[in-house]
UniProtKB/TrEMBL annotation:
Originating species: Epicoccum nigrum
Chain positions recorded as FAD binding sites: V227
Top-level taxonomy: Eukaryota, Fungi, Dikarya, Ascomycota, Pezizomycotina
Name of the protein described by the UniProt record: Glucose-methanol-choline oxidoreductase N-terminal domain-containing protein
UniProt GO molecular function: flavin adenine dinucleotide binding; oxidoreductase activity, acting on CH-OH group of donors
Keyword Membrane: no
Statement: the UniProt record of this protein carries the keyword Flavoprotein: yes
Pfam short name (any one): GMC_oxred_N
Keyword annotations of the record: FAD, Flavoprotein
Needed co-factor(s): FAD
Entry-linked InterPro entries: FAD/NAD-bd_sf (IPR036188), GMC_OxRdtase (IPR012132), GMC_OxRdtase_N (IPR000172), GMC_OxRtase_C (IPR007867)
Domain of life assignment: Eukaryota
Length: 536
């Protein structure tokens, strides 16, 4: 279908949010012509998208479904550059993310203090969005007829029970529904954005865009197309200027203007939306002039207040009997054939899960806070008192267990593994219109992004701001300490992968001790056999 030169509504950005907006508007009134523009390719029936178990492939630096923003070198990262991945495919993060069903806390929405954005006002929309495919004791806050499916997937690694037993022994209570908007401290078997009936990932593009285009003609789709800028006439946005995501001829840029009769919605994501606005002349006048763009709207906050959750991984060796996805990730032909056959035949097996079967949201106790006060980074106490203390629904940290080695499989040693991954729980305390990232994190650090020229292909001046607020350090350390304690209480535990952990002095009480003799012998046999196979 040819893309018209003029439509009623243009949605700039086909990510998780943009797909919902475009699909809902097109279904609201079939006489409305809606255009959705996405820089990445379509995800329609893409096996790298709909097979849940291979999602890590989308995170690699050579991925075609993600783009990567490199920040300035940072003194807070010992001179290194942060690399921030962003989805580069229709459906956005919902097409390539970890598929973890996670809701914000009620106070996060109420903190906006904005009309229409209170938790009670948003619950009907949350319910309308989802089909909750499990037994439920909270039917008043979950939906059962929405386009996006929520389930445990069609496979569960047994390490889930081991993890939950260990966290309960630490005083982290098991809860049936950690996503009830009110529980800020607890453990659960983690739900996933996976359709239980098919074993497929449930993403916003298939749920809202492809399903609409299959039955209606009023939703137009442009993929592999970048929005250069919004076209302004006076104080009114009248259209958008678009270019190919990659120039067909180096040094030459072919563009097109598409006009909107009613509305233009910019939903390019946390990093792309500010750049679109700035190239349009909307932002800090001084910075726009420096980049060679004529200022049209004085809005200095555009591109400020970037925040992201800090994700860290710590990998542990697992005992030989523990089931994991390691042999599949290594490329074992027999294992891969078995796994793919099982999924292709009936949508079950290891490909029908993300391997993240359980996790926690946690808040520190007073004793733990007192311990943090004695660390070299005691600044978190002020953040706790001002933001967390009186809002018990807000967790400080999250960590989950992954049933295998999560990282570059080319450097994976022989044996079996499990991985703990952690991130600061965040929801920015700003208005609903401010720049923000995912809906579940609270770091205090802030960064920024600004264009360096009018050229949409030029990289921005991006400062991730990671760890530039000292209040973020203590909870990151505390989260690692808690998850390490969980790992060492698990039956699966067979030691640490040293390269994935801090180096402790030989006489440090934190240093991992040798395993008992029986376990050492059992694990040694397995590793030696694997080493022989590789040598042969």
């Amino acid at each position: 279908m040819a893309i018209p030169d003029e439509v009623d509504i243009i949605v700039c950005g086909g990510g998780s949010c943009g797909c919902v907006v475009a699909g809902r508007l097109a279904n609201l009134d079939h006489s409305l012509s809606v255009l959705l523009i996405e820089a990445g390719e379509s995800n329609l029936n893409n096996p790298w998208v709909f097979r849940p178990g291979i999602y890590p492939r989308n995170m690699k630096l050579d991925s075609k479904t993600a783009s990567f923003y490199y920040s300035r070198p940072s003194e807070w990262l010992d001179g290194r550059r942060a690399v921030v991945p962003c989805a580069h495919i229709l459906g956005g993060g919902s097409s390539i993310n970890f598929m973890m069903y996670t809701r914000a806390s009620a106070s996060d929405y109420d903190d906006f203090q904005a009309k229409g954005w209170t938790t009670n006002e948003l619950i009907p929309l949350m319910k309308k969005h989802e089909t909750y495919q499990r037994s439920c004791n909270n039917r008043d806050i979950h939906g059962f007829e929405g386009p996006i499916k929520v389930s445990f997937g069609n496979y569960t690694y047994p390490i889930k029970d081991d993890f939950l037993r260990a966290t309960e022994s630490q005083g982290i209570p098991y809860t049936d529904d950690l996503q009830d908007l009110t529980t800020g401290h607890g453990a659960e078997q983690w739900l996933k954005w996976i359709n239980r009936d098919t074993g497929r990932r449930s993403d916003s593009a298939h749920g809202y865009v492809h399903s609409t285009r299959a039955v209606h003609q009023n939703l137009h789709l442009m993929t592999n197309t970048k929005v250069e800028k919004v076209v302004l006439e006076g104080d009114r946005a009248v259209g958008v200027k678009v270019v190919a995501t990659k120039p067909l001829t180096p040094g030459q840029m072919s563009s097109r203007v598409i006009r909107a009769r009613k509305q233009i919605i910019v939903s390019g994501g946390t990093l792309s939306s500010p750049l679109i606005l700035q190239r349009s002349g909307i932002g800090d006048p001084e910075k726009l002039r420096k980049a060679g763009v004529k200022p049209l709207v004085d809005l200095p906050g555009v591109g400020l207040n970037f925040q992201d959750h800090y994700l860290t991984f710590s990998t542990y060796r697992a005992k030989p009997h523990v089931e994991s996805f390691d042999d599949f990730a290594r490329g074992d032909p027999a294992v891969q054939k078995q796994v793919f056959d099982q999924w292709n035949i009936n949508g079950t097996g290891p490909l029908a899960t993300n391997g993240i079967e359980a996790g926690v949201k946690i808040r520190p106790t007073e004793d733990e806070l007192a311990t943090m006060d004695k660390w070299p980074c005691p600044e978190f106490r002020s953040g706790w008192d001002s933001y967390f203390k009186d809002k018990p629904d807000k967790p400080v940290m999250h960590y989950s267990v992954i049933a295998g080695w999560f990282g570059d499989h080319m450097v994976m040693p022989p044996g079996k593994f499990f991985t703990m991954f952690h991130f600061l729980e965040v929801w920015p305390p700003f208005s609903p219109t401010s720049t923000r990232t995912n809906i579940k994190q609270y770091p205090f650090s802030r960064g920024s992004t600004h264009i360096t020229s009018p050229d949409p292909y030029d990289a921005p001046d991006f400062d991730a701001g990671f760890m530039n607020d000292k209040r973020d350090m203590a909870p990151m350390v505390w989260g690692y300490v808690k998850s390490r304690e969980t790992a060492r209480r698990m039956d699966a535990y067979a030691g640490e992968v040293q390269s994935m952990h801090p180096f402790y002095a030989y006489d440090s009480p934190a240093r991992a001790k040798d395993m008992d003799l029986a376990t050492t012998k059992a694990v040694r046999v397995s590793w030696m056999l694997a080493a022989f196979d590789c040598a042969d």
